Amino acid sequence: MKKVALVTGAGQGIGKAIALRLVKDGFAVAYRRLQ
């Protein structure tokens, strides 16, 4: 089963870092860039 994550606030900062790390760790990532 594929791991899936939803990250909000992934446009910059810690949200972006978390999203990138999850992708590196094999997750399918859906993200929302909020400003």
TrEMBL record:
One of the Pfam families matching this protein, by short name: adh_short
GO molecular function, one term: diacetyl reductase ((S)-acetoin forming) (NAD+) activity
Top-level taxon of origin: Bacteria
Keyword Oxidoreductase attached: yes
InterPro entries, per the entry: NAD(P)-bd_dom_sf, SDR_fam
Protein keywords: Oxidoreductase
EC code(s) of this entry: 1.1.1.304
Listed name of the protein: 2,3-butanediol dehydrogenase
Taxon lineage: Bacteria, Pseudomonadati, Pseudomonadota, Gammaproteobacteria, Enterobacterales
